Fold this protein.
Amino acid sequence: MRLFATGLLLFMAVCFVVLRKLAAWHPEWHGLLGYATAFTEAAMVGGLADWFAVTALFRRPLGLPIPHTAIVPENKDRIADSMAAFLRDNFLTPQVVARRVGSFNFAAALGGFLSDPASGAQPRLRAGAANLLADVLESLDPERMGTQVRAGLARQLERVEVSPLAGQMLSAMIVDKRHLPLIDGAIRWAGEALEANEEMVRTMIRERANALLRFTGLDNRIANSVLDGLYKLLAEMIVQPDHPLKVKLESMLEGLAQDLQTDPNLRAKVEKAKRELIANPAVGTWWQSVWERLRRKLIETARNPDAAMGAQLTQMLGELGSALREDPRLQSQINRFARRTLVGIAARYGSEIVRLVSETVKRWDAGTVSARLEGAVGRDLQFIRINGTLVGGLFGVVIHAIDRLL
């Protein structure tokens, strides 16, 4: 566009010279050539004037130290302050932000973006989130990160008193009768363990019996009687909800739940056991191996999101988009949160953002400021020169016509 504007100006100059020569060679064409010559003459003046005006904004025309030229580089600090003030007053005050975002439905727009298959949002978000997660996990030092996580968990556990929490959980289970399946499971486990170790029980009884009992074979009968009695006891405890031993066991659990919450000695013992468990090196080694396996699995899953978790993430994003688009109450909550967040950012960091813009522009050298502003305005600057050339020519014709009439 700059070449075109300059070429148009040179074309008018050439036409002016040619027309003056034709007027000298053909005086009979003086009337018609006069209008054409006036057009080209005024077009050159208009083109040169607008070239000077456009050039003077960003540099000194022909390098001459003409006053009030190179306006942008000479005043870049003031321009930076003006830009920052404009940004602050029109965009980054809490009142302006609240007014501009007050009627915008962030949640509905996000919901439509996520739930629209044609937008391609879900694959992009899935791939981006997966790659970011994998990059972060790979950049971490496994041993150091595992140690930090373990230390963080240990600090949190040290602040929590386990005994009252365990007592409250046990009391809630007993009130809701959720402990009964656990007791029945423990009884069945005891029966299975006894069945699996019958021979060991028989051997123990045989070894403790005297020679007479072994000689008469009573040791086997005693062992059978003991095993049958134990099997019968366990079976009765399972089928009888009010079995005395079962009631006793429930009573013991209720007492334990109460003692965990109120007994200082028991609470101290539980806390001591917790601290010893946390400080045990074996627990640290176990956690390190767990963390490393978890980290490797997460990296493997993130590097292959389409095969490993693509369907789940796609479904989750689609459901989230539908909920955001169709649930007015959810939209209201999210929009309120978004507005408060944006207004809070403007209130807390608006002045810092403005200062960043101002200081950045001030740090630019004069050539950079001129080049970036000129590039931002772009083709319109050269259209000013083109329009100046053509409009100047038209005014030249009008002035020539008025001169002829007068």
Remarks:
- The two ends are 40 Å apart (CA to CA).
- Residues 2-69+365-405 form one domain.
